[in-house]
Amino acid sequence: MYIDHGFARPNEVPGLPSEPPSVNLRVRPGAEPPTPEGSIALTETPGKRAVDLLLGGTMLLLSAPVWALIALAIKLEDRGPVFYHQDRYGRGGRVIRILKFRSMVADSDQKYGILQARDGDLRITRVGRLLRGCGLDELPQILAIVKGDMSFVGPRPLAAGEIVEDAHGRRIPWETMPGFAERLGVRPGLTSLATVRLPKDVHPRRKFRYDLIYVRHRSLGLDLKLILLSFLISFTGRWERRGRKV
To answer: Per residue in 30-58, pLDDT tens?
Structure first.
């Protein structure tokens, strides 16, 4: 069984890229801060934007009643704000404002810092746990897809200022991670190869590895396959599973 920094490799999903052990994510000593936007190679898969606009417009129209029900449920639970927003890195290193339905206690970032959710996370509300299982908390990001800040498929947008642990337990910013600029060459996505293939609480470095794999192997066919798998996971409520989702 393949082991990477203490995490077992998940079961293969036919048709999706596998993880080569050659992708090196060791942090360079004294690495530079975020790469200037002008030095990042921006790329786009042919036909990808057309799919985003067609699917995004359709989903906005069909999901309008769901938005209203979710907003009402969030308000009834704790009377806090319906939406949660956060600054994240978009294509080319531009900082974009991401909007989500709030699934955690109000002001969680101010109280606890910018931390990825974990299994049994006490910050997550009862309504939020249901939303996250079905991926409905991400629904407002369709607006960003139609606008052009995001795509349906791509590396999940990294939070600006987020601190993660490297292989040696040191706390480092994402911007010092090798491959950071390459990852910013494509639009961030609502779903990704990493979120479909990996357990939800796997280490962020492993997700970052899969993001680089997607960037290097992306195609319209792969995007369509990941979109279909994402719908399947949403309909079965498996986004928060610790094991295999599909």
So the answer is: 334 444 444 677 888 999 999 999 999 99
In terms of Cβ atoms closer than 10 Å to its own Cβ (0-12, 13-18, 19+), residue 128 is: buried
Q: Which of 225, 230, 183, 17 minimizes the C-alpha distance to 9?
A: 17
Task: Tell me if 100 sits within 8 A of 141, measured CB to CB.
Answer: yes
Question: What percentage of the chain has pLDDT greater than the value 70?
Answer: 80
120: left (phi over 0), alpha (psi -120 to 50) or beta: left
Going by C-alpha positions, the residue among 25, 24, 2, 22 that lies closest to residue 12 is 2
- Strand-pair category, 151-153 with 163-165: unpaired
Backbone angles phi, psi at 144, to 5 degrees: -70, -30
Where does the chain show beta strands of DSSP type E? 3-4, 7-8, 83-89, 95-101, 151-153, 163-165, 171-173, 189-191
| 80, 96 contact by CB (below 8 A) | no
CA 46 to CA 56: how far, in whole Å? 17
Q: Are 28 and 176 in contact (CB under 8 A)?
A: yes
The tens digit of pLDDT for each residue in 14-25 reads: 566 655 444 444
